[in-house]
Amino acid sequence: MKTFNLLLSSINDVKDFVNIVSNYDFDVDLTSGRYVVDAKSIMGIFSLDLSKPIKVEVHSDDCDDFMNELSKFIVQ
Q1: Where do the HPr domain residues begin and end (predicted)?
Q2: What is the pTM (predicted TM-score) of this model?
Q3: What separation in angstroms does the CA of 27 have from each of 30, 41, 50, 62, 70?
Q4: Mean pLDDT throughout 29-51?
């Protein structure tokens, strides 16, 4: 499992993010505060506080291509 933070600052960012995540078979969870949602759920993502970075948990060890596609959203 890999964990990192990302920032989705616009509606288009959320749409692009969900399209990328949906191409992969493994599970990805987003955590904001005490809420955890499926990263493939656009409605779930919009229920989070998008003004702050969101914690991402990727339930796979073989996710280098996935991480490369998300590099524009990743923050430290």
Answers
A1: 1-76
A2: 0.92
A3: 10, 11, 20, 12, 15
A4: 96
